[in-house]
Design brief:
The complex is a heterodimer. Chain A is α+β, with helices and mostly antiparallel strands. Chain A folds into three domains: 121 residues, NADH:ubiquinone oxidoreductase Nqo5 subunit (Beta Polymerase, domain 2), CATH 3.30.460; 34 residues, no CATH class; 307 residues, Cytochrome-c3 Hydrogenase, chain B. Chain A is built from 19 helices and 15 strands. In chain A, strands 1-2-5-4-3 form a five-stranded mixed beta sheet. In chain A, strands 8-9-10 form a three-stranded antiparallel beta sheet. The radius of gyration of chain A is 23 Å and the shape is globular. Chain A starts with a helix and ends with a helix. Chain B is an all-alpha fold. Chain B has one domain. In chain B, helix 1 crosses helix 9, helix 3 packs parallel to helix 9 and helix 7 runs antiparallel to helix 9. The chains are: A alpha+beta, B mainly alpha.
Chain lengths: 525, 310
């Protein structure tokens, strides 16, 4: 859709719409600026028109230069490969905007984030509890993402209020944040009547490290290493989204060879994580043989990564302007041979799982997230596809995936079985894609170009193995990062988990959790 | 004299079985696994450690490990292993054995509730749910053996000399019961770190140090008693004449081979349990009702077979 079509579309729903400016910033990004009073209605109109959830909603502190905060809301027009970004300027002494949360639920977490990080109030929001800056340790009145935040000021502490479910025979079971296994910290509060769960409230934020603040003031080249650490199991997806944003702003075109190499590494990352999850589901139902088998396959993939890039987790591979590691003839051959072996092993693993009645009985119908709920929550990525929502950025935004005839895999039932099937399908598709991409690699030696940075702002996005990894970047004239907003798919999908487990029994929670396999650090930032 | 030997055998050999099961499982999973002696190391470590006791715990919490261990030790001397007539023989029969098991369980559940942690309550309620299904099945298996023998006297177990349909089915029932009793897959999972899925482990989560060692030791002993009973039904051999009547054995070799076979049977059962554990996934909690329901039905079939004399 071009700008005029979008304006006409919004006007159709919301008659008095008037934009301050509409620009096609890049071929895949349209920026619409409106006055603060029209923000809510414009967002609602776009939400309705594109049937898109809120992918990102974030603030940015520009008080030093212009004396304002800006609020940006990103919608996806996936079918046409476009992002539409609504932004408003709000004066610093009237730091509030109209809340979207009551109509668009997917905005609610973002609004809580803006409130705690910037102290900009979403007016009319039903829930303003803090997500990451826990009241018990962070005094009121500290807004760390404001530019003038220096260090923590003393102030009143408070408590967190959990949703309460009361009634005869309803018990609360608090679990975590310290768990018995080696996993991330998260606090889960179950309200149960007997074994079935009637409410689950997740409290996260224990691994909050202030990533977005750390990005500020760094140069793009050194900040790549930081992007790789946002979520350790998706380090390539994060570094890719980051570099794509930086390249878009500076107008850098990377060599074709690097485009294919990036796709190959991205798929390798998807593979080792998917097989890890499949093994994890088996271990959570005490089915230990297949889980041991899956860990053998995962190790083979990590070793392959190490051999190809000298990093088991694909770190230090990406750079702005291309990639640092190439595949010569020898490595290509090793890659293809290893994939053949891995595919055989993987098929064997799938056969063991599918032929085990006890395993299938555990995962079938467990932890179902219905499509309607998933859409309402704005769940993204693999979890959304398992509930029947055909959303995969690879299909809509990438030309090389189109050339390779990539097909979105979706499932309808939204239960643990659906997520397992989807992981299996995507693993196999990844092998096929890598084989296609390796075939396309030319002898061309050039795998990166020397970047020259320009001022600007843009969105970088990648379909990582969990789902879309989104980076909004603002770079100043010196080439330093002014604002970097990161959205890992885990951030939105934790909500999905809380709804998927309802009506299931407590001992099935770990299985549901594993089938989602969300990142604590990616969500907590 | 022999009764003391029997008691020592149970205390000394019981942890070995757990170590063996874990070793077999790990080897099938292509892992080297811990040493079969690991349960002994664990016990030694725990005996040397200081204990941490919750402030809200009452005397029940402190008494439970002793009650549980005492119950298992009484059970261990009640059954005929080396001697036909236990000094406690008149104290009880088969049903007493089942009640002694229940006594230990009852105290464990009480102590789980005692500390007021959410996992203890969860584990306790699940344990009671499982045990209410498990005890009838155990009773039926025991009845089947008693019917063949003609009395609920505990001697029935050593009085069996031939395999019948009834005893095979009864052994199968006991096998299913033993899996549930020893908290193994598919009913429970001893290895899990997922506190939300635990049954037995959730109950003893608050224990540490010496108390935990005592509880673990009693679990090992309970496991060995159950395995022994199964072995006695499915591989029936009597006691050698020398132990029963006091007449001299023909040779040491004979008695050595007998002891070897006597113990080997238990090891075979342990390996069978390990194979079951490795080849199925844990069931949904409420499916345990189906599993133990099946055990109960098998127990009924065993009893009917015993009445029919097959």
């Amino acid at each position: 859709m071009v700008c005029s079509e979008i304006i006409a579309g919004i006007k159709n729903i919301f008659g008095t719409f008037e934009a301050l400016s509409v620009t096609q910033a890049y071929t895949d990004e349209i920026h619409i600026k409106v006055s603060p009073g029209l923000f809510k209605d414009t967002c609602l109109a776009l939400h309705k028109m594109l049937s898109s959830s809120v992918y990102m909603l974030f603030a940015s502190d520009e008080r030093r230069a212009r004396g304002i905060f800006t609020i940006n809301c990103v919608f996806g027009n996936l079918k046409q490969g476009q992002w539409i970004i609504i932004s408003i300027d709000i004066p610093q002494d009237e730091a509030y905007f109209d809340s979207l949360a009551k109509t668009i639920y997917s905005a609610s977490l973002f609004e809580r984030e803006i409130w705690e990080m910037f102290g900009i109030q979403p007016k009319g929001s039903p829930d303003l509890r803090r997500l990451r800056l826990h009241n018990e340790v962070w005094p009121k009145g500290n807004y760390p993402l404001r530019k003038d935040f220096q260090k923590l000021q003393a102030g009143d502490l408070g408590d967190y209020e959990f949703d309460r479910v009361e009634g005869d025979g309803v018990f609360e079971v608090p679990v975590g944040p310290v768990h018995a296994g080696i996993i991330g910290p998260g606090h889960f509060r179950f309200s149960v009547a007997g074994e079935p769960i009637i409410n689950l409230e997740t409290r996260l934020g224990f691994t909050h490290r202030g990533v977005e603040k750390l990005f500020e003031g760094q140069s793009c080249i050194e900040a790549i290493r930081l992007a790789e650490c946002v979520s350790g199991d998706a380090s390539f997806a994060h570094s890719l989204a980051f570099t794509q944003a930086a390249e878009k702003i500076s107008g850098i075109f990377i060599p074709k060879q690097a485009v294919y190499l990036r796709a190959i590494f991205l798929e390798l990352e998807r593979m080792y994580n998917h097989v890890n999850d499949i093994g994890g589901m088996a271990v959570d139902v005490g089915f230990s043989f297949p889980s041991a088998y899956a860990s053998v396959i995962k190790e083979a993939l990590l070793k392959l990564n190490d051999l190809l890039t000298a990093s088991r987790y694909l770190k230090k591979v990406n750079t702005v302007g291309g990639v640092l590691k190439s595949l010569d003839e020898n490595k290509k051959q090793i890659l293809l041979d290893s994939l053949k072996r891995i595919e055989n092993d993987f098929n064997e693993l799938v056969k063991i799982l599918y032929s085990s009645v006890s395993f299938m009985d555990r995962i079938d119908t467990t932890g179902a997230l219905r499509r309607k709920t998933a859409e309402g929550l704005g769940v993204v990525g693999l979890i959304a596809r398992a509930s029947g929502i055909p959303a995969d950025l690879r299909e809509y935004f990438s030309t090389i995936y189109k050339e390779a005839r990539f097909k979105i895999a979706t499932e309808e039932s939204g239960d643990v079985l659906a997520r397992l099937k989807l992981r299996i399908a995507e693993f196999k598709e990844s092998i096929r894609l890598i084989e296609v991409f390796v075939g396309k690699l030319a002898d061309d030696k050039e795998i990166n170009v020397n970047p020259e940075f320009k001022e600007g702002r843009a969105l970088g996005y990648v379909e990582g193995w969990r789902g879309p990894v989104l980076y909004w970047m603002e770079i100043d004239t010196a080439g330093l990062i002014q604002r970097c907003k990161v959205v890992d798919p885990s951030f939105l999908n934790w909500q999905g988990l809380s709804y998927a487990v309802l009506g299931n029994i407590i001992p099935d929670f770990p299985l549901c959790n594993k089938s989602f396999d969300l990142s604590y650090s990616g969500g907590d930032l | 004299m022999l009764i003391i030997l029997q008691l020592i055998l149970f205390i000394v050999a019981a942890p070995f079985l757990s170590g063996l099961i874990s070793k077999v499982k790990n080897n099938i999973r292509m892992r080297k696994g811990q040493s079969v002696l690991q349960p002994y190391y664990n016990l030694a470590k725990l005996f040397l450690k200081r204990e941490v006791v919750s402030e809200t715990a009452s005397w029940i919490f402190k008494a439970t490990p002793f009650v549980v261990l005492a119950a298992m030790l009484v059970a261990a001397v009640l059954i005929p292993v080396f001697i036909l007539r236990s000094p406690l023989n008149h104290a009880g029969d088969f049903l007493a054995l089942i009640f002694i098991f229940s006594l230990g369980r009852f105290f464990l559940v009480l102590s789980a509730l005692d500390t007021g942690s959410s996992f203890g309550g969860m584990g306790g309620s699940r344990e009671m749910f499982i045990s209410s299904l498990l005890e009838p099945a155990l009773c039926m298996a025991v009845f089947a053996v008693s019917l063949q023998f003609g009395s609920t006297d505990i001697l029935a177990f050593s009085g069996m000399h031939a395999i019948s349909v009834s005893s095979v089915v009864a052994a199968l029932t006991l096998f299913l019961v033993a899996i549930a009793e020893t908290s193994r897959i598919p009913v429970d999972n001893q290895e899990t770190h997922l506190e939300l899925t635990m049954i037995h482990e959730a109950m003893v989560l608050e224990y540490s140090g010496r108390s935990l060692a005592l509880i673990e030791l009693s679990s090992h002993i309970k496991q060995m008693i159950l395995f022994f009973l199964i072995a006695q039904i499915i591989f029936p051999i009597g006691l050698p004449a020398c132990l029963v009547g006091g007449s001299f054995c023909t040779s040491f070799m004979q008695i050595f081979l007998w002891v070897l076979w006597y113990l080997l049977r238990i090891i075979i059962i342990a390996i069978a349990v390990a194979l079951v554990e490795i080849s199925v996934a844990k069931m949904r909690l409420f499916r345990a009702a189906d599993f133990l329901g099946l055990a109960f039905v098998l127990g009924v079939i065993a009893s009917v077979c015993a009445i029919l004399g097959v």
